[in-house]
Amino acid sequence: MSALKPGSTIGIIGGGQLGRMLAMAAARLGYRTVVLDPQGDCPAAQVANEQIVAAYDDAHGLARLGSECEIVTYEFENVPVEAAKSLGANHPVFPPPRALEMAQDRLTEKQFLNDAGIATAPFKAVDSNESLADALAVFGGSGVLKTRRLGYDGKGQKVFRDAGGDQTAGVYEGMGSVPLILEGFVPFSTEISVVAARNAQGTKAAFDASENLHQGGILKRSTVPAHVQPKTLSAARAATLRILDALDYVGVIGVEFFVLGDGSVIANEMAPRVHNSGHWTEAACAVSQFEQHIRAICGLPLGNTARHSDCVMENLIGDDLDEAERLAAEPGLVLHLYGKTDARPGRKMGHFTRISRKS
Ligand code: AMP
To answer: Which domain holds residue 68?
Structure first.
């Protein structure tokens, strides 16, 4: 496959900050971008060549996107699979819609990971209060109950600790009477993630793993290098590369892992897109995860993932945006704001990365 010619157009489904950073990376490599998002003047549209304001499953919007671009990608994992497949009839859609299918349902995702020989938390499907009580009994009364679909940043989750059957009354209805999954509680010491890419020729490249701290279910900080054993890094990297091959993947993926006390890893979830825990790459690597994704989907050679600096990336969430001016004065700090004006609590407004000499 020859590389997409400069001046060609990439369609991006989803117009949040990830789409914005993909559009900026695409522009640097000479590509045009058209963003499909229902919200006008979304973060990605502010930097893309054009926005189509339409719902992700709107037939007219999708047809227009298809007519205006050579290839299609997406910036979030809840893109309707049917929309990706319909565009796929006439255009390359990367990452492949099968990756979306696997990642959209936590049950399917865990089954896929286990089939690929990758350990996950033990899990059971839950579709009533009775099946919740049965599953909790199997996991000794502790576990994390999650919606199978459409959960993100810790939303749609409930933690049980030493719970008896009496604590399950009304829970299924309280979670919206939707298909659920109970995961056994993982006593992790650290959380890490690996962002990696694969191109259509099957060449793969992984960035260094980051160590991640979550607050209130939202990523707060990613530190690189992660303070874990070398065997932990190689296990997480190997599992990520295996996932890429198993999905015949093209593009960037982010895979989150729990690290246990003995240094072994358990996969938590995979995101078929660029990942918040990979934002540090724009400051500490010559080629960022965003450029790497554009390179992979456009058939360009993958970039060097080597890291020239140690770094700590932090998200600016809600009112943290007020810190931006002070942060901008700090030497060795790379600031990135998303063009959002309404700093609601819990909303990701930007991020910054502090770089320091490589240890
Ligand atoms: P998730 O939306 O699945 O990424 O979960 C959000 C956060 O909740 C994770 O980053 C962990 O900190 C915590 N968590 C999720 N699942 C489990 C589990 N099975 N055991 C322990 N902690 C969990």
So the answer is: 9-93
